[in-house]
Amino acid sequence: MTRGISFLLPDPYGTPLADLLSPVELTAYNWLVDGVESYVLEEDGLGPPLFPNPVETMDGGRFKERIGAGRHYLIFVDIKAFPAGSTVQEVRNYGQFTSSGCELALIIADSVYADLYCKDQELLARLEANAVERGYENVVSITDDNDFRTRLAAL
């Protein structure tokens, strides 16, 4: 079974979250966001945190607005999506992911390494096609056989 995809982001500057998640109907979810190290880009360098609170839950409209407004720079980010109206809870590993209402988990580390887990196989296929079309490097399916991640977290 395919759990998700792993890939390298070609450019950590810009709107990588909006680009990567473009196949997702963002407003259909509530988003649990740990921005760890993610910043708004300003003309003279890094600005304020993209996600100012250490961990926050956002409705889809607010999340869509935040990731689509201006350019940003991601170093470490941990994002989980739950259907709107469902319980949002911390998900620390793949077992919790499968038994929770969490539908999508995105972990970005060191600005370029990305792992995306998605329960909906059709959406996962669209996300993978989007990654390939956008020129993301080393797009590889994460399966039961090659998933060595023990935690679904950026740090």
Q: Which labels suit this protein?
A:
155 residues, alpha+beta, nine-stranded antiparallel sheet
Would you give an account of this structure?
This protein has one domain (2-143). It is globular and about 45 Å long. The protein has 155 residues and is an alpha+beta fold. Strands 1, 2, 3, 4, 5, 6, 7, 8 and 9 form a nine-stranded antiparallel β-sheet that branches. It has four helices and nine strands.
In brief:
With 155 residues, this protein is of the alpha+beta class.
Helix content: 10-25%
Topology order in helix (H) and strand (E) letters: EEHEEEHEHEEHE
Structural domain count:
1
How many helices? The count is 4
Query: What value does the Rg take, in angstroms?
Result: 14 Å
List the helices and strands and how they pair.
Elements: E1 2-8, E2 13-14, H1 16-20, E3 29-42, E4 45-49, E5 56-59, H2 60-68, E6 72-83, H3 94-99, E7 104-109, E8 113-118, H4 121-133, E9 137-143
